[in-house]
Amino acid sequence: MASLSPGEEDMESASEGEGGWSEVRKKTSRKKIDMSSDSLSESDSRNELKRVKKKNENEDWKVIVEFGEQTAAKLHPVALTKAIHKEIGSIKQARFLSKGRMLIELMNAKQQEKLLKMKTLNEVRIKCHVPGANRKILGVISGVPIEIGIEELKKEIKGGKVSVVKRLPTRYQGKIVDSLSVLLQFEETIQQKIMIGCMSFPVREFIPKLLRCFKCQRFGHVADKCKATKPRCPTCAGEHEYGSCAAGAKVKCCNCGGEHSAAYQGCEVQKKAKEVQRFKVQNKVSYATNKKEVKTENNSGSSR
């Protein structure tokens, strides 16, 4: 069910308004779907969604090692490689992730078990966990009266171990107010329903807000992480900052080329990006870390 990586930022940015959180009901059958690359652009719109490959045994032997951002920046790749080989033997590969983390792909379960128990590597303190183990398990219930406070909800909720309860905000008459929807973080697995008193509330998967970069206008990342060398205007698609359009410039989407801005909710590229976002949650994958583990539906279809 729903399992998200960012966690706290998802909890903080959740909202009921347009462009905020959304919900999907549990489906009895999984529809084949393409999975997106790191960022969605107009040049590969037909191949934006990719489907996840069937799991193979190599996927099971992965560990994320946390060094800390400042420490990781000082690590010597050669010395670190020698230390890894000395402690657990030869590995498939390793690569640095963001926030001072490293993803190590191992040869077998014995190596994984040993690495997970390690507290230091090359005399540096580390924390190890399996990818996805720290993801937040989030769900949404609706129709919860405003009069019921958060503390009361925490006491009255039954049917699952809930660690965090947050009422989602919404926009009403130009103001941000509490909505009738509540975001729940489960400690174990998400439940199909929970009880508040004698009332039953169905639980739906929480889909986090779709990210759109305000620099390049593509989806799947934010401006601070953008690799584009030049900005793109969300209004006219020109290579300049927002608000600097030439006189008489026509409105043009820089993602699909349509006669609308990059923020338009009906944009086909944005719709596909949202589909990817839902698929990400349902299948516990992300744009970046699973890039090598996906292939396009078109390619798989042509090989049949």
UniProtKB/TrEMBL annotation:
- Biased segments, Basic and acidic residues type: 23-35, 43-53
Q: Which residues form the CCHC-type domain?
A: 212-227
User: What are the protein's UniProt keywords?
Assistant: Metal-binding, Zinc, Zinc-finger
The record's GO molecular-function terms, alphabetically, read: nucleic acid binding; zinc ion binding
Give the residue ranges for region: Disordered: 1-53
Work out whether the entry's keyword set contains Lyase: no
| Coiled-coil positions | none
Q: Which InterPro entries match?
A: Znf_CCHC
- The entry's protein name is Uncharacterized protein LOC117542404
**Organism name:** Gymnodraco acuticeps (Antarctic dragonfish)
Q: Which gene encodes it?
A: LOC117542404
